Amino acid sequence: MSPSESEAAFLARYDPADYARPAVAVDLVLMGLSAGRPALLLLRRDRHPHAGRHALPGGFVGIDEALEDAAARVLREKAGGVPAHLEQLYTFGAVERDPRMRIVTVAYLALLAEAAFAEALERAPTLSFGTVALPRRGVADEAEAAAPVTVLSPTGEALRLAFDHAEIVALAMRRLRGKLDYSEVGFRLLPELFTLRQLQDVHEAILGTPLNKPAFRRRMLDRGWLEPTGRFETGTSYRPAELYRFRPTSPSQGD
Amino acid sequence: MSPSESEAAFLARYDPADYARPAVAVDLVLMGLSAGRPALLLLRRDRHPHAGRHALPGGFVGIDEALEDAAARVLREKAGGVPAHLEQLYTFGAVERDPRMRIVTVAYLALLAEAAFAEALERAPTLSFGTVALPRRGVADEAEAAAPVTVLSPTGEALRLAFDHAEIVALAMRRLRGKLDYSEVGFRLLPELFTLRQLQDVHEAILGTPLNKPAFRRRMLDRGWLEPTGRFETGTSYRPAELYRFRPTSPSQGD
DNA sequence: TTAGTTATTTTTGAGATGAATATAAGTCAA
DNA sequence: TTGACTTATATTCATCTCAAAAATAACTAA
C-alpha cells in the first residue's frame, strides 16, 4: 500500500481481522430510594446459569449502537422508560464471568427519583426489588475500602446475585458515595422540588451515617446549586420547610 | 427446558446467539514525567486511517484473555515490559470512532516511574514522546471541567491524535488530578526512594499549579503513607533532603 | 393561649490550611 | 577555616472550614 493511496480506497478493501470476539453487553444498576434506603431493581433469573438468583437488567450491545444508547435502550425495555440519570461505572471482563460464553460487560449506574423508581416497579412486573444493606460507614474507611455489599429482599433475606453482579453493585455504591458530596448525583434521587431535609435524608441514606444539620445546609447552600422557590411544603404538622430546586451551575461533566 | 434439568446438560447444548459483535480492544495511556512535565508515549500511525497522526498503544482483547491481562500484554509488547501501575479508565464505544469497523475500547491508564518511562522510550524505538500541555488549572475549575488537553511534540508543536484518543488523554489527566490528593497514584510516578520535594514536584506537575511547601509536607506526613528511611539524597549542593519510601497503609482499592 | 415539633439562624470552638519566619545543614569560594 | 549561599525542615500565626450546640422562628394541635 502506497502512502499516497486514498483513504477511501484503503477502506474499501479493508478486511477486518476476524478473530473470535467477546460479546459486549451492558448491565444496569437501577438505583433509587425506597423508604429512605438505597434500593435496586433486579430480575429474577429463571434459566441457567444461576437460575433462581437475581441479576442486573442488561442486554447485548448492537453492532450499530453506541454504549450509552444500549444502556438507554435497556433502561427503556426493562424499566418502562422512566427518566433516569445514566452514568458509566466500569467494565468487567474476567474470562469466566459468564459460563455460557465470553462476555465483556460495561456496567452503568442509573439513578431514579423516588417516583420513577416506584413507577418502574409498577410498569415492569417482572422486576423485583432489593434494598442495599450498608456495611455501616465506619470512621476510618474513607479510603473506599472494598465494602462487601449485601442486597436484601423486601422480607429481609439476603439475595444471592448472579454472575459478578454483587461486585458491580458494590462498585456502584462506592461510586455513589464518592461522588455524592461534590457532584449532583444526590439530586437525581429527588423530585424536582424538595426540602433541605429531604436532601439530607438522601445523603444520609447513601452514606449510611447521620450528618450534622446546620453544617449540611450551609454547605449545600454555599455550593450555589440550590434555588429557593419561595414555596413551602404542605400537609405537614409543624413548621413547613422551604422547597428548593436544583440549578446546575457549570456545564458539569459526568466522570 | 425443565427447571430440574442439570446445569451441565444445559450448558452442553447452549447455543451462543450469534449476532454481529463489536471488536473489543484496550488502549493505554502510558504516562510518566519528563523534566517535570506530564508526558505520554505514543505510536505514530503509518497506515490508514489517520496515517501520520499519533495514537495510543493498544490491541485487541483475546477471546480467552481478561481485560486487565490484555492491558498488561499491550504494556509488555509496546513498552518493553517496564513496571507500571495499571488502572482502568473508561470504555469508549461510539459507533463511528474507528472507520474500519466497530471497536469498543477499554482505556487504561498506565503510570510509569521516571526511570521506567525513559527505559520504555529506549527499548521501543517506535514509541514517540509527547508532553501534556495543561490548560492551567484556573481558580474556579475545581469541578473537573472538560479540559481540552493538548499534546506537544518535543519540539513544541501540537500533535494531532488519532481516533478519539485526545478525549481519552483528557480523561486520563482529569482522573489523575482527581485522585492525586487522596490516593497513591502520585507515588507511582516516583522511584522507590524520593524526597518530599520530588513528591511535591510531581503534584505540581500534574495539577499545573504551585503548592505551599510547609502545608504540603504536613499534609503528606499526616497521611501516614511516608516512611522516613534515615538516608539522604547525595550529589546535591546545599542541604540534602531526607529520602522517604511509600508505605501503603490499608489494602487500598483502585477505583 | 400554650405546648410540642421542626425549620432556620447564630454562636462557638476545633482542626486544617496558607503565608511568613526561623533554624539547620550542606556546598562553594575566598 | 570562615562566611556567603541555597535548600530542607520546623515553628508561628492568621484565616478558613466545618461540626456541635444553642437560640430563634414558624407552624399545628389542644
TrEMBL record, chains A, B:
Residues 24-111 form the Nudix hydrolase domain. InterPro entries: NUDIX_hydrolase-like_dom_sf, NUDIX_hydrolase_dom, WH-like_DNA-bd_sf, WH_DNA-bd_sf, WHD_NrtR. This is 8-oxo-dGTP diphosphatase. Keywords: Hydrolase. It is an enzyme of class 3 (hydrolase). Transmembrane segments: none annotated. The keyword Hydrolase applies. Its EC number is 3.6.1.55. It holds the Pfam family WHD_NrtR. Residues 186-246 form the NrtR DNA-binding winged helix domain. PANTHER family: ADP-RIBOSE PYROPHOSPHATASE, SLR1690 PROTEIN. GO terms for molecular function: 8-oxo-7,8-dihydrodeoxyguanosine triphosphate pyrophosphatase activity.
